[in-house]
Amino acid sequence: MDISVIVPLFNEDESLPHLAEWITRVMTENNFTYEVIMVDDGSKDKSWEVIEKLSQENSAYKGIKFRRNYGKSAALNVGFGKAKGDVVITMDADLQDSPDEIPELYRMIKEDGYDLVSGWKKKRYDSKLAKNIPSKLFNATTRKMSGIKLHDFNCGLKAYRHDVVKSIEVYGEMHRYIPVIAKWAGFSKIGEKVVQHRKREFGVTKFGLDRFVNGYLDLFSIMFISKFGKKPMHFFGLIGSIFFLLGFVSVVVLGVQKLVALSNHIPMRLITDSPYFYLALLGIVLGTILFVTGFLAELVGRNSPTRNTYLIEKELLDEKSE
Questions:
Q1: Count of Cβ atoms closer than 10 Å to residue 42 Cβ
Q2: What is the reported pTM?
Q3: How does pLDDT run across 117-129, given as a tens digit for each residue?
Q4: What would the DSSP string read from start to end of 149-176?
Q5: Which of 84, 104, 164, 292 could share a disulfide with 160, CB 3.0–4.6 Å?
Q6: Which CATH code for domain 3-228?
Q7: Contacts of 37 (CB under 8 A, 6+ apart)
């Protein structure tokens, strides 16, 4: 199969028929063999009924319905697990991503040899104050910290080589950092394509300004997990050891000073009267806590499950996709 298109969605019943018609036309014109996996993230409208109808009319359309809303990352992660195409393309269901971009994205993966190609909505129709300016700051920070030269990390329109989606796990709200996750998984050939951004025709946006605050927190999380997720003791143990040694050396220095003063009959206040003693003690305590935290994190990491479990209510998939 040439292409798997994964469409995460939440309350998009008005957009889905138009999106499906557009995708089908593009696939037919380019003679692609394809599947479209629509992941209903706990919608409260008639999205699932629309997916069922699309599946009955065209067997290439498949669906997965969550029992509740887990978020875009969960929808993508489950879709990745079911995808069978040589190239996997993700796009949003709100018609702001254009299926006409699919042929070129496919070519860049198959012919240019990219592992991942991310869309760049260079010209946007969002509010500058609400989305454009915060988005530029967010992307600039991510580029600096990750070393990946992309302009739009959060663009929902992306293309992946099959091996990439089978080698990564997306959880929490990490969907905006899939290029970073892919890079740390060893897929370093990451490209970018300017794509069309269209105005939303139906419904309302599902994202608020809080996503930018959460975005920075998620960035620090993914950078930490990428470097120390499998070896937390290397982080906590190192910092803990430094604090402990500084505190211990400080206590020894204070003790030696006291002994020297006593041996020379020089009056000197009690060690416990010195503020440096309590700072040294604090260093020892913090060092011990951090070291134990690293040790416990190692135990938890070695004994915890590696994947998340999501409660799926319904599926429209063929048996071979399991």
A1: 19
A2: 0.73
A3: 999 988 766 555 5
A4: --S-TT-S-EEEEHHHHTT----TTGGG
A5: 164
A6: 3.90.550.10
A7: 4, 5, 6, 7, 62, 63, 64, 79, 82, 83, 317
